[in-house]
User: What shape does this take?
Amino acid sequence: MNPDTLKYTEEHEWIVEQRGIYIIGITEYAVEELGEITFVELPELGKRLERGEDAAVIESVKAASDVYAPVTGIVAEVNDVLEMEPDLINRDPYGKGWILKLKDVNEEEYNELMDSRSYRGYLKTVE
Amino acid sequence: MQYTPLLNEYERQGGKVVDFHGWGLPLQFRGILEEHRWVRQQAGVFDCSHMAEFVIRGADNIRSFSNLVIGDLVNLAVGRCRYTALLNTSGGILDDGVALRLSPEELFLVTNAGTHDAVSAWLQRHIPEIEDISGDMAKIDVQGPRALQTLLKLGFAGMETMSFWAGRRCQWQGMDMVVTRAGYTGELGYELFVPNNGAVALWRALMALPEIMPCGLGARDTLRTEMGYPLSGQDVDETRTPVEAGLNRFIAWDTEFPGKPVLEKQRESGAHDTLVALRSMDKRAPRHGFELRHDGGVVGVVTSGTFGPSVGYGIGLGYVPAALARPGLQLEAGPRALPVVIETLPFYKQATGRNPIEISNPKQGGDANV
Assistant: This one.
């Protein structure tokens, strides 16, 4: 995934639409903050998530952190590989370390999210 | 922000510097997990120069100091270390530390960075002649099964005869140093107290050895948590007594210390909180500040928690009422009701710290402790 083409939240999730399915992960900044990830708790397939609702839990050596649904939608797929290899998120946050996919998403919410340029500007305000 | 003499060294080695009680120290170099495992198998080096050191001279001053802490330091043998705690008048723990009897007339005391200013002022009020040498001393910890081997390679003489929790003066490249066989990881290890101006030379000499990896605060925390060692300011502080913190074996009840009536009352009644070890059933960890629940009610709090790399599950320390402190009891921790079970310490039971030294030929050094 090319980070320039993704949408972002202020909680450092990324999301991108591909043929009606929305792929979600966490950003490199989030990964840096969390450190080495040791455990990922994924949502149930078919679960409806409201925007801002807990979608997954990521635990690192240092901390536990929630992943929030960037938009409202239904869980279409989860990255099961993370249960065995949670550090895939550290190694490839925009690729093999994706976390979940949503369908039937509220597109208006999606369009409101930051693009990569806005997100980079936002990062300057939080660093 | 304060820095140790080694700032430039670890920045060059990729150390990720964070604020620890006002000190800029490396959180990690190559990664917490890798550093942790290296210490359990090889030897890791930690910059602990932020910690505080004091020298107490003379029998009267040593006696005065002994009356401020839970242990008997008057009768501490020359060359021996003792873990102890400094108490306020209600028996709360101002700080914990290690005292070394350097000579009949000298006690060397090591305490923590976060409490340094308060503890230094408090000590000087009680013992005006105490010497605070924190500003002059660096401290480099070498920890791991191969720690002895590395020190012998560097030419530290006589290390192989030091027993667990021994300490003494030593010389290295003409510098006067203090060394203790102690540490905060559970592994065979040494703490090297070196003058600030010698810290870089010692650090570089260690880093040139293949057994050595620089390690940060992150691994230090996971290693000590696996052993159940309390962290001052987090697991023990002024609101907790040594009886609550499970430090009874370090209390000399026949000596005087501040807050003694409070501790005696707790010991007799048994009605107090107790520090317990908590383990999770999987890799999720209880975390600092998590509430502990039992039968639907809040019964305590988690003070430390992390994933334990060498045990493979989440571990932590926390306080519950003594009546609930039963190994095997299940509690729920934190907002997601993580199931945790009360365990006995240490979590990691294969640590090498207390192992006797076995050396075929100490002069060679290279084959030591393999």
Remarks:
- Chain B has eight helices and 19 strands.
- The first helix of chain B runs from residue 7 to 12.
- Residues 1-227 of chain B form a domain with the Gyrase A; domain 2 fold (CATH 3.30.1360.120).
- Chain B touches chain A through 17 residues (CB under 8 Å).
